[in-house]
């Protein structure tokens, strides 16, 4: 039954992130090939990075025919959708992104536990699977990755990995509850603008640069101008 949940979560996350990548590509005015490339990278980028780190061959991607097919169909549908529908997607973008984050975080944690990895690896696998595709998408699109902003994002994926790694969720119903909880937490953090602590040095550096900047001597410049303009006779 766990494999059934694993497959369902994989499908949900793949479709959600494939659509997300396609929409971002169209916002950046990519051609049709760029739309498909960015959509596929968003859908599978997190899983590829995770596999590289936990020692699973990346070639397993090509055996996921159903996921590849679902991603390609999703991207194609989004590409031909009316603009009004895509605008509606933009209003719901955070929700679908939360679904993809949660689905892939739980899926990544389950994948790591099935490989008998330790708790830290399970948490990292959940985080990378959940945020990896979106991070690669934003970098390729020239945007600041969402995970690098102060918004709480990756923390929820790490929390899912921690719950599964500690064995607090080990049944189908508990996985679904965890999936729903991560989606809810992500939506709440976006709605109420919960932020992680941050420390900015931008103003401090700006003040120090301003303090050491040399100030032109107006007197010397004025004397030099007067001497140059004086009559040599």
UniProtKB/TrEMBL annotation:
Keyword Cell membrane found: yes
Chain intervals for the UniProt region annotation (Disordered): 213-233
Membrane topology of the entry: Multi-pass membrane protein
Main location: membrane
Keyword tags: Cell membrane, Membrane, Transmembrane, Transmembrane helix
UniProt cross-references to InterPro entries, sorted A to Z: Gly_transporter
Subcellular location(s) of the protein: Cell membrane
Cellular-component GO terms for this entry: plasma membrane
Residue intervals of the Glycine transporter domain: 8-81, 95-164
Segments passing through the bilayer: 6-25, 32-54, 66-86, 118-140, 152-169, 175-192
Similarity comment text for this entry: Belongs to the UPF0126 family.
Official protein name in the record: Putative membrane protein
